[in-house]
Amino acid sequence: MRIGVIGLGNMGAGMAANLIKAGHDVTVYNRSRAKVDELAAVGARPADSVSDACRGEVVLTMLANDDAVTAVTFGDGGIIGSAGQDTVHISSSTISIGLSKHLAEAHAAAGHKFVSAPVFGRPEAAAAAALFVVTAGASDTVAAMTPVFDAIGQRTFVVSEDPSAANLVKLSGNFLIGSVIESLGEAMALVDRGGVDKHQYLDILTSTLFSAPVYKTYGGLIASEQFEPAGFAAPLGHKDIGLVLAAAEELRVPLPIASLLRDRFLRLLASGGDHLDWSAVGSLAARDAAASDHSA
Amino acid sequence: MRIGVIGLGNMGAGMAANLIKAGHDVTVYNRSRAKVDELAAVGARPADSVSDACRGEVVLTMLANDDAVTAVTFGDGGIIGSAGQDTVHISSSTISIGLSKHLAEAHAAAGHKFVSAPVFGRPEAAAAAALFVVTAGASDTVAAMTPVFDAIGQRTFVVSEDPSAANLVKLSGNFLIGSVIESLGEAMALVDRGGVDKHQYLDILTSTLFSAPVYKTYGGLIASEQFEPAGFAAPLGHKDIGLVLAAAEELRVPLPIASLLRDRFLRLLASGGDHLDWSAVGSLAARDAAASDHSA
Amino acid sequence: MRIGVIGLGNMGAGMAANLIKAGHDVTVYNRSRAKVDELAAVGARPADSVSDACRGEVVLTMLANDDAVTAVTFGDGGIIGSAGQDTVHISSSTISIGLSKHLAEAHAAAGHKFVSAPVFGRPEAAAAAALFVVTAGASDTVAAMTPVFDAIGQRTFVVSEDPSAANLVKLSGNFLIGSVIESLGEAMALVDRGGVDKHQYLDILTSTLFSAPVYKTYGGLIASEQFEPAGFAAPLGHKDIGLVLAAAEELRVPLPIASLLRDRFLRLLASGGDHLDWSAVGSLAARDAAASDHSA
Amino acid sequence: MRIGVIGLGNMGAGMAANLIKAGHDVTVYNRSRAKVDELAAVGARPADSVSDACRGEVVLTMLANDDAVTAVTFGDGGIIGSAGQDTVHISSSTISIGLSKHLAEAHAAAGHKFVSAPVFGRPEAAAAAALFVVTAGASDTVAAMTPVFDAIGQRTFVVSEDPSAANLVKLSGNFLIGSVIESLGEAMALVDRGGVDKHQYLDILTSTLFSAPVYKTYGGLIASEQFEPAGFAAPLGHKDIGLVLAAAEELRVPLPIASLLRDRFLRLLASGGDHLDWSAVGSLAARDAAASDHSA
Fold first, then answer.
1. What is the ipTM of this complex?
2. Would strands D131-136 and D119-120 be described as parallel, antiparallel, or unpaired?
3. Residue range(s) of every CATH 3.40.50.720 domain in chain A
């Protein structure tokens, strides 16, 4: 397929490379040119503008946030104005369900097709074509995009005909990670005050009931209090929890842990935590606890 | 070793059987006689009273709660008055850190030794000698008990010289499970309102970042809203969260998610949930949310 | 002064009438004409459009929410395009601090002056010229508006040179009322379960430390469980708590009780409470509690 | 009446003095002798022991907490063993509903009568016979105690035949004060960051909807950040919130604001706040917020 990829950050670059490897004809665009050249070196066609990346049957966007997706889609020379009839826009960014619905409507009005396909996985998984793809949209369009999903991921989940449902799943996943961070932060503050070594404690947890990668990764960061450099920065976590709460607002679902997380992120940012990894939220419980005896 | 085992519930019976298999000389006591006879049939010496089970070098208790352990230890004919000098009391029950400290002091005063050794694992793991043992106490005593731990579990973690630290680890583990239940309950209420199938959602979660058994087990119960029969009843969950908060009170550690869980359990019990599995706490978020469109 | 008043609801109508009584030359506009005619009967000049109400030195808006103020100010024929140089726009509506800042900038760019002047008090106080006016803006402009404030209120508080500070005070006041509702709801649920009559309990409270009107008014509604007709409907309370949280977001202030209130309102609305008074939030604690013994 | 008064702290001393002024024959006991002598100088009979204070028809206790009341009642030479048949024990201390029930049972078994009569009001009100008395117990006994209540307070509320109901009302009152402290702390943190002066803000609040003394008193302390010397120390506030939650546990009433307050007090104490007034809980929201622009 002829595919345009817009957004060549850590995630998008890996996805584009894998689309090339799978034999697709891939055009790439990025705001800063260096990334474009890197991909061109492995077989991509470089694009000088968003509109240049909209000439194929598919345009896939992998960008940082709502603002970036909005600019690329609705701005001058954006996808809405540049893409041909029946072009499929696959949006893989973590965006609000509000924007997802707006994209679906605008593309329908412009004669395009729209599919949401956010992914679970870190940059290494993107590079290894091992992402998990959660997708939603009109079933025939989604089915037609199978070769794209197969090229970038290890497994694809089709969750709904409504594209925004896939975004909701992605956001809720980040909420669950946030919940793990906060609960581990509380548990570690508690056992630390009781004289238990935090690393050994984490070893017990991850050897038993909590063997999931998310416990190992974030538990290790919290136990070591090592929040720099940020793998996923606190303002991004804050933003995603805000998007979860916005979705909950629209769907009228009270989410007490999400509300707690919002306050935790505000506090972290208010105390200068903008540059820290979002797992630093897991250090706040310890900050509020009595100094541990054994550290005296 | 000559070992008395007191408490032959689903957990204790399996542990006693494995001690016998490992070649120990095991005497068993239980409030109701039937369990004693079952174990006698596989090689245990039956005891008619707590004191009869206190004749060996070790007495291991595996009971339901603080009250049961208190009665067996401090009551008439209890362990304190019946055990000989240097007898080791291994307490595997999930009890408060307050009682654990009290046991340590009382046994020291009586010339006994005391080790806490709560376990992670369900009855099947107890039967298969596959428990995870978390233990704490004087290091030489703990070291001397290695044959006991090896007989009942697959791995032993020694966490502190202070026996109550092991109880704290156990309680904090139940707190983390409670956090998983609540967070899954919130996430599922949200995506369900957004039109996503809850079972498919759980499949996505457990295929990706949340592969731990605890997500599979409790997520499945919440998705199916199947809270009977109770594997671990709501009042027990409520009690354990209460013990976590009591420990947090003593150690002065604010735990907002634990506070939330306490209120959730109170609500569940207030609405008649005594007979439900504790994962029913994960149904409360959905109860508060707007009826989902797709269920209309 | 020549003053245009836009928005003749329960509050605005009383304010306009008092401006007339105080001798000002008042032009009135309202979306539905009936209110205009009522005011015309007591001396107001009727206006057929927003722009007709923008011919004086002052235009005062008293509208339901951000959308209404936005439409009246920035819409076709709105205040921005219609008002003359140096016209003062007094905004008395309960609006977001974001909109307040936007209004200040837009009016400055258009050569107008802008003052925020939200009020505390119910329709009866508006009718009696007994409102409390909280105002903020450039000090000379605020000072020049003294005759307006004196005509509608019993006391004026000048809080800042930044107009949005007055909106923040107003919003925070509604947050505090919400806190009273929730805390009274919890306390009444508790004593009710303990066998104490809720009305007598409220009498004790308001005879002693809690003599403020807000306890009497809302406590009475909660004790009687009388939430219809709505004096201030739940969706408006929900909206205001949302505006408080939006301000807290911008200023980076974690507000745990506000977060709780947000979830309470979502739950109330999700269970069909749109038509109820916002004090119905105070009935949720009782809903979660065990049925009281004495009501059995 | 012949009345023994046990506990001559700031509250009890004033109550005893007023009983003397009202013409009663008052015997006083206190752990430290100085207070006894002060009261003796104004007409009290000094007692050397608790039992000496139990010779009359009534013994009134006004002590710091459950432990003190337990010691005085059940200890060697305590009220249970010393008081004659039909003696009335009036307990005015702020105690748990659990202890209140225990006292009622023990006194009934010993042939005594028991009435709870906690009071609202500070030491100045106790000195001025201006307390509010909340009482519960068998109606004839309560009625017979009217002269006592009239001597110490300005108004008496009879709430139940169950003595513990009066304790519940008292505890819930302290919970409501705690709610005011927390909500004011949040609101002031918010408006302060928005550039509003906290004292002026409080003036606005207390001039309008929040005219109750509790807002003036605690709001002033929070605005001034003046938490020493402690009028009511943080550990006492913490203890009372604990008693509220214990009551809520027994009655199965989830109380989210009380749970929040418990965590707030733990945090305050963990950071060295034992010597501060309990209103220092109202400073925590500001601690978590971004530094305000205007303080830079």
1. 0.95
2. antiparallel
3. 2-161
pLDDT at D3: 98
* Residue contact B255–D249, C-beta within 8 A: no
**pLDDT of the residue at A290:** 80
Question: Among A243, A244, A252, which would you mutate to test the C interface (most chain C Cβ atoms within 10 Å of its Cβ)?
Answer: A252
Q: Say whether pLDDT at C242 is over 90.
A: yes
In three state form, how does the secondary structure of chain C look?
CEEEEECCCHHHHHHHHHHHHCCCEEEEECCCHHHHHHHHCCCCEECCCCHHHHCCCEEEECCCCHHHHHHHHHCCCCHHHHCCCCCEEEECCCCCHHHHHHHHHHHHHCCCEEEECCEECCHHHHHCCCEEEEEECCHHHHHHCHHHHHHHEEEEEEEECCHHHHHHHHHHHHHHHHHHHHHHHHHHHHHHHCCCCHHHHHHHHHHCCCCCHHHHHHHHHHHHCCCCCCCCEHHHHHHHHHHHHHHHHHHCCCCHHHHHHHHHHHHHHHCCCCCCEHHHHHHHHHHHCCCCHHHC
Locate CATH 1.10.1040.10 in chain C.
Answer: 168-295
Q: Which residues of A touch C (CB under 8 A)?
A: 242, 248-249, 252-256, 259-260, 262-264, 266-267, 269-270
Chain A CB contacts of D270 under 8 Å are 288-291
Which residues in B lie closer than 8 A to residue C291 (C-beta atoms)?
A: 270
Residue of C nearest to B285 (CA): C267
Whether D183 and C204 lie within 8 Å, measured CB to CB? no
DSSP state of A233: B
- Among A270, A290, A291, whose Cβ lies nearest the Cβ of D288? A270
pLDDT at B3: 98
Q: Which of C113, C170, C198, C239 is catalytic?
A: C170
Residue D254 to residue B269, Cβ atoms within 8 A = no
Interchain CB distance below 8 Å, D252 and C169: no
B2-161 topology per CATH: Rossmann fold (3.40.50)
Annotated active-site residue in A35, A113, A170, A198 = A170
Determine the distance in angstroms separating the CA of B267 from the nearest CA of chain D, rounded to an integer.
Answer: 6
The nearest CA of chain C is from the CA of D41 a distance in Å of 32
Contact A259 C254 (CB under 8 A): no
Of chain C, the percentage scoring pLDDT greater than 90 comes to 94
Instruction: For residue range C265-289, list pLDDT tens digits in order.
Output: 999 999 999 999 999 999 999 999 9
Position C296 scores a pLDDT of 35
CATH number for the domain whose boundaries are D2-160 = 3.40.50.720
Is B239 annotated in the active site?
no
Contact B63, B73 (CB under 8 A): no
What radius of gyration do chain D's Cα atoms show? 21
Burial class for D296, CB neighbours closer than 10 Å (0-12, 13-18, 19+): exposed
Question: For residue A78, which of A65, A90, A88, A69 has the smallest C-alpha distance?
Answer: A69
pLDDT digits (tens, 9 = 90+) for B49-91: 999 999 999 999 999 999 999 999 999 999 999 999 999 999 9
Q: Which one of 3.30.300.20, 1.10.1040.10, 1.10.300.10, 3.40.50.720 gives the CATH number of domain C168-295? A: 1.10.1040.10
Looking at beta carbons, which residues of chain D come within 8 Å of A266?
A: 288
For domain A168-289, give the CATH superfamily: N-(1-d-carboxylethyl)-l-norvaline Dehydrogenase; domain 2 (1.10.1040.10)
pTM above 0.90, yes or no: yes
Nearest Cβ partner for C288 among B267, B290, B291:
B267
Q: Which residues in A lie closer than 8 A to residue B253 (C-beta atoms)?
A: 186, 189-190, 193, 285, 288-290
d(CA D151, CA D128): 10
Q: Using CA atoms, how far apart are residues B213 and A36, in angstroms rounded to an integer?
A: 42
